[in-house]
Amino acid sequence: MSASLLSIADLGAEGIEQILRVSDSFAEVGRRSIPKVPALRGRTVVSLFAEESTRTRLSFETAAKRLSADVLTFSAGSSSVKKGESLRDTVETIAAMGVDAFVVRHPSAGAPAQLAGWVDASVVNAGDGWHEHPTQALLDCYTIRQVLAERDGLAVEDTGVGCFAGLRVAVVGDVAHSRVARSGVLALAALGARVTLVAPGSLLPPSLEGWPIAGVSHDLDAVLPDLDVCYLLRIQTERGAGSHLPSLREYTAAYGLTARRAARLPGHALVMHPGPINRGVEIAAEVADLPRSLVLRQVANGVAVRMAVLYLLLAGDSQGDMLKETVSG
Amino acid sequence: MADQVLLIRGGTVVDETGERPGDVLVTGGRITAVGAGLEVPAGATVLDASDCLVAPGLVDLHTHLRQPGQEEAETVETGARAAALGGYTAVVAMPNTDPPIDSAAVASQVLELGRGAVCQVAVAGAITVGRAGARLAPLGELAALGVRLFTDDGAGVQDSGLMRRAFEYAGGLGVTLAQHCEDNSLACGGHMHEGEWSSRLGVPGIPAAAEEVMVARDIALVRLTGAPVHFLHLSTSGSVALVAAARAEGLPVTAEVAPHHLSLTHAELAGYDPLFKVNPPLRTAGDVEALRQGCRAGVVDAVATDHAPHPQEAKDAPLDQAPPGLLGLQTAWPVTLAALTDVGMTPAGVLALLSWQPARIAGLHPDQGGEQGGPVVAGAAANLCVLDPGATWTVEPDRLASLSRNTPWAGRTLTGAVRHTVYRGEPVVTDGEARR
Amino acid sequence: MAERERRLTPPRGGVFVPRVQVLSPEDVVRALTRIAHEIAERNRGLEDIVLVGLQTGGVPLAFRIGQILEEMSGGAAVPVGMLDVAFYRDDIGIRPVLPEAVTDIPRDLAGMIVVLVDDVLFTGRTIRAALNALADYGRCQAVQLAVMVDRGHRELPIRPDFVGKNLPTRFDEQVDVSLDGVVLGDVVPR
User: Where are the domains of chain B?
Assistant: First the structure.
């Protein structure tokens, strides 16, 4: 079994730091007139999306192509899964074509982990159910680090991850059903941030045992003045979060970032959102520009971070991937 | 076969009357002598029982034989063979087949298939038509065929009013209703125990309360109607406490637990392996301990396998798409023995939970006119198992008798093996191998 | 670059044990000054020159040459860049190749004369990778190569234009180059 990125928990602080550092180099590649390097020439990357996500899929495919890998796209619509073939059969068939990595998005938590046990190729979790979305967390960390570096007048590559130590972050909203939250909390906490979950009880996971958080709050107004980063999660109405709330209106009243609430944030605080934003729900239309100003950076950084992940997983030697080496070293 | 002469020699006889060293002579399907140093009659087959317990055959209250409808997963024939290899001489076939056992026709079909099997196959009937929870199945018609247990297993009867009527009706028939306790509105969409691991893994969970709510409701209905209830595969400490309280109150409540709930926790799901997906789900270490203590204290009456075969391809799926259930018949004895000796129970105490107590719940005990689980004495039906509590073996899924391979114990080494099984005087398993 | 190659050679790197000091710090500065003069002479001035140091060993040398050229020309700055060729190497997949630092090319290279600067010229594979990388920044007028030490053992048809010192070595030796001098030694397993 090759090296895989299934969970932020597999990386540890050193692994995350290494990915961010290598991402700096790929961010530079992205700024060139020819934003492409031959690093993964001859490697094949399959993007297997059993759940549609155009943004994430394009980001991964762009990353793979900029590394000169060959990219095969397999989406749920064209899938033989619909013909009754099991996921395992499908994946083993694709793997037999000679594949170096699977980038997997699946509505079932754990599907990428299972897949990693079935094939020899590397597997990158591109989002599985409510479980994790590791590259989203990595690109969010990259973006935070970039903004903090600029604020200090530094180039991002001259900044370590020290900027995360003690960083006060609130993750607001539907934590229970959010893979972004699970990965984000693990990544931020590993880097030393103090993460507070802010949500109504019905949108919190049933147990927070083992979660590396500083606390839980049901009062966004009280938390806002002490934040460096306010991370708003998307309300997953499509995943049944709606029934966990009396109404979206009531949610917005208590947990939406209105203009009045935004004014309670310290001037330096970042407002982030993984997108796409339910305007008027997680955030009021008049302050939606706060996270939107970061959206394009997040998109650009997403490509660089995913290049780093693919490169680190696939460019190592037969003795193991470079990620593991860093972690164990 | 029935006129075959067997001498089971050199073991320790264990039954509900106690234990003693002794040889057991079987002739014509019956036990004809029990005692130390019996002579080997001419032409007798000698079964070595040294270092072994010679006990009434085990009785499984909870077996999914999958026939009719899912013969690729298991059949009566293969399931019975797995049972015999696990030391069982009787199993109760659950009614969630396709079609379900909710009519005399289907019940007769399964009973008929069971007549040629290597252990006794009793059936449980459905409580409601199609196990749909809407109207009562023909309990009387099924009871007339000898069905003693009724359950919609696979699901609980959600409608409290309907369940009340079922209790009232069953009480008059002298049969027992067995409940799969799971409140669907609490369990909805869950695939594992709701708690630390489900929260971390991002998997929808089934809270302990989903089971306990229905246990509590049914206890209230037993109090209301006076009819007995048997609780299937209880999995939480709260359920054990509810049963203990009902028992103290004198209510006719019995309960079973499954070997896997006595030994595995939800942490097994950390790798999302659907082999560990089962309903009720594997719960916390605290629940495991409470179930063990419940067994020791006598609150739990039986250990039942919930043997639930599924074909490989069904389990080669994402956790939330794979069906719940795991194989249990061939591993029940060693798994239960290990779990319960851990809390200080003796092998005899463990056998009570695996043999004579479940035999009584199933209505198969000699006291009830049956021939399972009774004392090992001359004149009794020769349904016996010879168990080696000290032998170790490694579980190889491909060597199991079941048509399916979904054992959570694959590759693990267990202590406690079945050496011989004698069903109606026939040695159906000798030295751990099925004879037919 | 040769140093990095060695450092990452299985079994997972080693420790450099110095044996002979080949050049003193003064020798190094003298060599760099000579190289600077040769660059200016060969190109008839500094008009279109861009110095590009290879990460990591070539970078301080490139900056030092840039400084010398600036002094020579009476203050006219020569652009100096840094290039990391990790993503262009042909040993990706054979050994772990991590970028050491972010590439920083100060200007469009189209039409410029790029002088690549590295510490040690060995097999030539790093230079091959660097030539490929440079191509992605625009079509240069010419590319020249300056190295502090040419230790031989070329595996590709590549030769330096400017050399600080030709130093015959055994294949398994190690050359350590810095502004503090040039040292010949061995790598022993960690």
Answer: 5-54+378-434, 57-368
User: Is residue A106 flagged as an active site residue?
Assistant: no
Identify whether the C-beta of residue B262 lies closer than 8 Å to the C-beta of residue B292: yes
Fold type of domain B5-54+378-434: Urease, subunit C; domain 1 (2.30.40)
The complex scores an ipTM of: 0.92
CA distance B135 to C154: 88
Catalytic one of B15, B306, B398, B431: B306
Using CA atoms, how far apart are residues A115 and A121, in angstroms rounded to an integer? 9
Question: pLDDT tens per residue, chain B (436 residues)?
Answer: 557 899 999 999 999 999 999 999 999 999 999 999 999 999 999 999 999 999 999 999 999 999 999 999 999 999 999 999 999 999 999 999 999 999 999 999 999 999 999 999 999 999 999 999 999 999 999 999 999 999 999 999 999 999 999 999 999 999 999 999 999 999 988 999 999 999 999 999 999 999 999 999 999 999 999 999 999 999 999 999 999 999 999 999 999 999 999 999 999 999 999 999 999 999 999 999 999 999 999 999 999 999 999 999 899 999 999 999 999 999 999 999 999 999 999 999 999 999 999 999 999 999 999 999 999 999 999 999 999 999 999 999 999 999 999 999 999 999 999 999 999 999 999 999 999 9
Do residues A284 and A257 touch, judged by C-beta distance below 8 A? Answer: yes
Strands A168-172 and A229-232: parallel
Spell out which residues of chain C touch residue A39, defining contact as CB-CB under 8 Å. 86-88, 92
Q: Which of B96, B65, B69, B95 is nearest to B81 (CA)?
A: B65
- One fold for A8-131+299-322 and A134-295: yes
* List A31, A55, A268, A279, catalytic entry: A55
Return the closest-CA partner of residue B107 out of B97, B117, B116: B97
Residue A215 has φ and ψ, to the nearest 5°, of 175, 180
A131 chain-B contacts, CB cut-off 8 A: 201-203
Domain limits, chain A: 8-131+299-322, 134-295
| Alpha-carbon gap, residue B321 to B314, rounded angstroms | 8
Rounded CA-CA distance A287/B301 in Å is 63
Cβ-defined contact of C87 to A39 (cutoff 8 Å): yes
Q: Which CATH superfamily is domain A8-131+299-322 in?
A: Aspartate/ornithine carbamoyltransferase (3.40.50.1370)
Q: Is A93 a catalytic residue?
A: no
Instruction: For chain C, list the domains and their CATH numbers.
Output: 16-185 (3.40.50.2020)
Report the gap between the CA of A230 and the closest CA in chain B (Å).
22
Map tokens 């990259």 to a residue. Answer: A142
**What fold is seen in the domain A134-295?**
Rossmann fold (3.40.50)
Contacts of C24 (CB under 8 A, 6+ apart): C181
User: CB distance from B204 to chain A under 8 Å?
Assistant: yes
CATH number for the domain running over B57-368: 3.20.20.140
Is residue B102 annotated as a catalytic residue, yes or no? no
Contact flag C87-A25 (C-beta cutoff 8 Å):
yes
Contacts of C30 (CB under 8 A, 6+ apart): none
pTM: 0.92
In this structure, what token pair is assigned to residue A196? 């507070």
Interface probe with A: pick from C95, C102, C103, most Cβ of A within 10 Å: C102
B312: left (phi over 0), alpha (psi -120 to 50) or beta: alpha
Strand order in the sheet with B58-63: B58-63, B88-93, B120-125, B149-150, B176-179, B229-231, B253-257, B302-303
Helix axes A134-151, A54-66, angle to 10 degrees: 70
> Does A276 sit behind a cis peptide bond, omega within 30 degrees of 0 on the bond before it?
yes
| Cβ of residue B312 closer than 8 Å to a chain A Cβ | no
Cβ–Cβ of A109/B200 closer than 8 Å?
no
